[in-house]
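Interim report to the steering committee. The following record documents the input for peptidyl-tRNA hydrolase (150 residues).
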Amino acid sequence: MATLLSPRRFIPSPRHLTPSRSKIRVRDLSFTFRVTTRSLTQLGSSSMSRSTTESEPDPQNDEKKAENSDEVLVQYVVLRRDLIDTWPMGSVVTQGCHASVSSIWSHKEDPHTLQYCSPENIDSMHKVTLEVKGEPQILNLSEKLKAGGY
């Protein structure tokens, strides 16, 4: 039911960092979920702690579901709280934007991505930004999503 962009390392340019932070590396994770409208209203903070085996993806029905007008596509962008607290806000926002665009580009041929970016949906591209405490948590989330087939 979801597509995961493998974590990519983004190294900010030195002009955005003080010398004491010049060796910081960032991992931004962006992934796209297909969520039905009903499920979207029920989505809460507990959804991140649900077992990844609760809902298995069904690749055979992906194209049919992509054309379903009742379905809302949501892209989740996960940011690290430790970076939000220590980096300039512009740098954090830029990293989230890079992750979002990279995820879309990496899956540009997927029927769900085509629907998400279609001219009739371009003004209603749903995104949700979530945070994790730090690098260990974002890596843990990445591993859980991979293990669940996302």
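The first helix runs from residue 37 to 42. The committee is asked to note this result when reviewing the revised timeline.
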